[in-house]
Every structure is written in C-alpha cells, then in structure tokens.
Target: Protein phosphatase 4 regulatory subunit 3B
Amino acid sequence: MSDTRRRVKVYTLNEDRQWDDRGTGHVSSTYVERLKGMSLLVRAESDGSLLLESKINPNTAYQKQQDTLIVWSEAENYDLALSFQEKAGCDEIWEKICQVQGKDPSVEVTQDLIDESEEERFEEMPETSHLIDLPTCELNKLEEIADLVTSVLSSPIRREKLALALENEGYIKKLLQLFQVCENLENTEGLHHLYEIIRGILFLNKATLFEVMFSDECIMDVVGCLEYDPALAQPKRHREFLTKTAKFKEVIPITDSELRQKIHQTYRVQYIQDIILPTPSVFEENFLSTLTSFIFFNKVEIVSMLQEDEKFLSEVFAQLTDEATDDDKRRELVNFFKEFCAFSQTLQPQNRDAFFKTLAKLGILPALEIVMGMDDLQVRSAATDIFSYLVEFSPSMVREFVMQEAQQSDDDILLINVVIEQMICDTDPELGGAVQLMGLLRTLIDPENMLATANKTEKSEFLNFFYNHCMHVLTAPLLANTSEDKCEKDEIVGSNKSNTICPDNYQTAQLLALILELLTFCVEHHTYHIKNYIMNKDLLRRVLVLMNSKHTFLALCALRFMRRIIGLKDEFYNRYITKGNLFEPVINALLDNGTRYNLLNSAVIELFEFIRVEDIKSLTAHIVENFYKALESIEYVQTFKGLKTKYEQEKDRQNQKLNSVPSILRSNRFRRDARALEEDEEMWFNEDEEEEGEAVVPPGEKSKPEDDFPDSYEKFMETKKAKESEDKENLPKRSSSGGFKFTFSHSASAANGANSTNSKSVAAQTTPASSNGSSSKNTNLTTSVTATKGSLVGLVDYPDDEEEEEEEETSPRKRPRLGS
Model:
C-alpha cells in the first residue's frame, strides 16, 4: 500500500458547489461480484476502510483534468473527483476506465453527458443525433445565436452537443471578434445579445471551453461582453477595474512566467464568478460547478509552485523581519502571506502538512512575533489571521516554539504574551480582534489537543510554562480593575456600596468578560495549576468584586466563574470559599437585584440549587449558619428552605453519631484524617505566606503579624460585649437600596489562619438618619469560636449555641423579597 502512484484524495461536491475532502487512500480497479462489473475502489491509508466503491459504468462520462484529476457524476447532483499524487497513477486508472468504455485513452472526456430520460427521447428522434448546427458568426445572426444558447441550457444532451460544436469550430474566438466590432460601432443591441451568449456558454459548464475563454488573449473580451447586461441602464466597467484599479503587487518579483500567468488568471476568473455573474438561482447552481473546480485546482497549483521555489519564500521572510524594511513594504509582505495561507487551505492534507512545515522551517513564528507587536493595525490584523492558520494547523508546533523561546528571552517578548497584550490592547470598541485572539489562546491551552509521548508530556510542561510566564499578563487587567485602592477611592467619594465599584467603561467590561471566560475554561480543564493560582492570588475574591458591575453580562461572567469552581465539588475550593466568606458578594447581588425576575436572579438561585441537590455539606452549613436570616424570606423557590432542611438533617445525624462516641474521643469529632488535612492546609498556607500572603488579608490588617491574633480577638470580644446592649436598642435600618448588606470584609484570621475555622462575620450596614446620608456605620454582629490549635471543630453543637440564639434576635429583620 505504500505505492505513491496509486495514492489519491477522494473529493465530493457539496450543496454549496465546494469540493469536500473525503480522505486519502490508495485506488485500485478490480471486478466486484456484487456490482457485476469493473469498479474503482479506494481504501483509506489510515485504517484500510473503504472510502469509495464505484462501478465503472459504460455510459458515465469521466473527465480527465490537469493530468492528475479524474472527475465524474455518480448520480444527479453527486459529483466525485479523484486527485492523484502522481500523473502516472492517474494515467493508469484512466486507461482502465477507457478500456471498460471502449475508448482511446488519449481522450479527455469518455462520453457525452446523457441522462436516461433524454436517452429514450434521443432514440425516438434520430434527427437530433447530429451535432448542433451553429449559425454563421455574423452581426445579424447574434439574436439567433443567443436564442440557441439559452434554449439548450435546460437539456443536458443539447448542452453537451453545443459545447462540442463551439469547441470544434473555434467559435468563441469568432464571437469575441464580433464583440470588438459591436463595441466600436456602439451597437447596443448586439452587445446585449453577446452578454446572453457568453453567459450561456459559461453555464455550459465545460472545462475545455473555459480554457479557451480564460486564456490571456480572450479573458478581457469575455469580461467586456459581461459588462453589457441588458438589465442595466449603463454598462459596468469591469475591464477598467481589472486593468487600472486592481494592481498586481509583487512583493518579491516572480520570475516564473507560467506562475504569473496562473495568478492573473485565477484572480480574474474569481472576479468573474464572485462579482460579474449574478448569484445563480436554484436551477442554475449546478451550471457553475466546473468553474468552481477550475479556480480550486488553479489555487492548488499556485501554492505548490510557490512552495517549491525555496529562494522566493526565504527572500520574503528575510524582508519581513529586516528592520530596514519600510512599513508599506512590510504591510504588503504580510498581506501576501495571509493570502498565501488562505490559498493553502485548498491543498490536500499531506501537502498542507508539507506547506506549514516549510513555513515553520523558514521561521514564520519568530517573524509573526515581530509583526504582531507593530503599531500598524492592518499589519497586526493580517498577522493575527496568519497566526490563526498556524494554530488551527498545529497547536503543538506553536507551543513547542514558545517553550523553546522562553529559555532565551524575557517574558515580555514571548509570542503568547505578545498575543495576550494584543488582546488586552484591542482598540476596536466591539473587541473583534480580542475575541479572535482569545479563541486562539483557548486552543493553545486546551489539554484536549496536547500530546502525551513516551518521554515527556506536553500538557504538564506547557501548563507549567503558561502559569509561570503568561498567566500574570492575562490576569493583570482583572487584578488592576478590582484592586483594593480602587475600593478605597470609591468609598472616599461617598459611594453607597461598600464594595469595589468596577469600571463602567463598556470596552473594559467586555475585555474583563473575555478574560473571565478564559479563566473559567482553565478552571474546567487545568485542575491543580489553576487551583494553586486562584488560592495564591485570592483570585475568586477579586473576580466577585465584579458582581457590582452595572454591566449585567460582566456580573454573570463573575458568577459563572464561581459556579464552575463549585461545580467541581472540590473540598479544597470549598474551604477556600467558606474561609474567605466568598458567598457574601453573591448574596448581596441577589438582594440588590430586588424583586426583578431576570437572568442574574435565576443564575444565583441555580448556584444554590446545585449546592442543595448535590448536597455539598460544607457549603450548605456555611450558607445556613451565615446567611439564612437574609435568605429565608425568599419563598418563591424552595432552594433556601431545602438547604436549611439538609443542614438540620446533617446536624441530627452528627448528634446521633456523637451520642454513640465515648466522651473521651469527642474533642476530635467530625474531622477528616488529621494528617491529610494538615498536609493540604500546610501546603496551601505555606505557599500563601511565601508568595502572595497579602492577597488574602484585607488592607487594614496586612501589617499585623499572625501571632497578634489571640490579643486582637480578645479586644474584639470585649468591645463587642460592650456594644451589645447598645445594639439591642439601636436596630439596623435598611440601606438606601432597601436591603440589608453584608460588608465585603472578613477577618484576616478567618481568611488566613487555621486557628478559627468557623469564625464568621455578618455585618449589616446601618445608615444613621443624618441629612447627607453619606457616612455609614457598620455594626458587626459576629460570633467566633476559638478552637484548640491544630484540631478542627465540628460544624454543629457549638459551646456557645445559646449565645448565638440570643444574637439572632438582634440580627436585622429579613428583607421581604417580593414586592407587596
């Protein structure tokens, strides 16, 4: 099967008249008993499966095109093509086909195209068996010729006969001479007839006629005839456009005259198909299939010829990366490459492989890196398109290049960071370029398309690289727009919200949404890399600041990020969320949303419903203990009542277990294997302190060492007791928005230390009835439990349960959720 002569690519023509690649295999011609005849068989080279089994029918018209193509119609509207790697193989199979049909292999077409219904009529009417007699090519016969050409289009037989007659008599060239006469005489009627004739001849769909019409000497006259559409008051000026406006730019002079001619011809034929010819109706769309194939195979030839010219491509690269090249020249070089890559999509896969490997060898990636960092928007956009072809073709090739590059250069100039910066700095208000680049980044960091070989795994290597060298660039805008100092500024201005207000600029919001989409993808696919990153940077807290955005789509992106994290049901994440009190901004957003029944409302409720249905115990306990008062008034869904029920059931279960445990063992109740927990927590908290400890500590407490914790805790409890009597008299009032707010601050101990797992703070914002209403006082209603260092207290049966009940009386009244 390794015989390259018989190696073929099977194409079928789809409904859009485009050739679809059905696979590569090896062709043979053998007698197939089931089909009772000699047949063409193509077996896939990958697994030996049958790609094609087609009986060589004595009446089917097979066409041989461009030495390596055999094209035929299997049934109405089902065209097939075999594209051979070598001419010799094509000739061999062509001989077999001609042998079965009793034809001389020197012919280009084995049969006249005949459909069966016409075949019967054909036998009944012997007079039609002769070739069509064409009227003499004269001015006064143009109307007659036009009627003839348009009349045959509905009949496949007559179309075929007319095509043969036109070919035999060199008729097209005579018609084009008449066109010049008519134009000189300004004979409008004649020119209108010629439009109909030439358009009709194109619809005959014959490759042999196209070769005459699209030759250098004829094509401009053909375009000229097509300018005179009778439906138009004034003729179009297509020739003027093709000769004067459309400039053939040679970035590097092309010396091969055949190649130049092919490029000109392809451009002009494409122009005829796309611009001049009206969009074919349903009945006409099959008429131009050969024209589409003509362009398709021309493009294949152009790419192959350019690729084989090593000198040409290396010269293009040299100029592209040379600093001395001026901007206009560089723009043309990049546009040339973009078009070159677009043409390469027509190549067969093995040729496309060779094409991209040639580009990689010549240094396309380092060249792109330089070009993508340039100021010229056009150049950058074309470079992005080229980069997308490369990423689609082989993400591994791009990843390998980037990792090698990291060993020699700074993070700033790494290709991936250049791509991320382009994404962040996109000036388009709709961020079209950024969306495209984000898609490419996602492909590059998608573990699904990463290879695992015997000696190394691309996944772990590349992700280590990405998180060490690139992740900080990607998250920079997110961290900058949710930073602590922004929060302080907002409070100074006298904002009602105690949380950070995120930027209202629509473009920034769009960008942050894109970054969040990518981070959400990472949470789903990158397991421990992203987990460490989120913990070290306290990333979820920063993301949830965006729940305050006036752009609901951005708030939803932030919520989706948290939902993905909770969806993993990973206790590591769950402890991080409960210790950081990270449900607070979500619940604030739900309460702020009021009685509006919208996507935000549904999404938040779905998050809690997921926790209830999946019975995530640690989160259920956290939500019920900290937020149930604020949520119990929400009765239009049973979610929160359901969470409370689950919580109470679990509490009862734990109590029963407790009662069966001897009292001496109770101090260590309800905990996981202590060693496993300590190792996990040690690993995380140690990393925190080394790398980004401050990320988790609110600004006011950054300076305090951990050891001060017990003292500050005692002071806190004293002031709390002192205030309790005052608080009982002075109940918190509603905030301006009508809801009770929790402040988005959490004690450093709760966020950071293993000392107090269950410390929780629910703060209700109260507004003194002062005239300006700008100052706001936060009354903290907090219960904290100190645990013996190193042991973990269970979530129920607190020693100070009674105290908690007393406090519940003083907590804010629940906010009615539905408007009365």
User: Anything to note?
Assistant: The mean pLDDT is 77.
